[in-house]
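Entry for the shared binder. Reason: the reviewer on the internal report wants the predicted structure included alongside the sequence.
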Amino acid sequence: MKHPFRHLGTLAAVLCIAGAAPQVLAHGDVVPQAVDTTGLKALGADFLPSNPYRKDKTAIRIGDSAFNQNCARCHGLGAISGGIAPDLRYLPLGDEGDEVFMQRIRKGAVRDGRVYMPPFEGTLSQEAMWAIRSWLETVHED
């Protein structure tokens, strides 16, 4: 009996040649999900230089959910990357990591004209961003 998936490689090649690969293989073409930050102190319009919610249980709970909805598709469940995007468990703790995190989440990343990470400023609130950062510090590894 012939294996039912024996032509899968051929199909993948045809899709790539036909230009359908971006739709089939894309990992980040998804609309960001709204984050309910009820229970967190409002921070205002000016972005803060360091995380005001560090170790805050409400922020960590919100950040866990927000990460799963908006970040895990590229950065992996539990922030354990499968290689598509950086493993965020290794971000530095404290203010140093805050600066790196906020720069990237706000502005995104573009290399050679390709969007590697979309900017989330204007999509996620500052409160949601800091909540995600708060959760990330709970899964930090050295």
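Summary line for the report: Residues 31-138 form a domain with the Cytochrome Bc1 Complex; Chain D, domain 2 fold (CATH 1.10.760.10).
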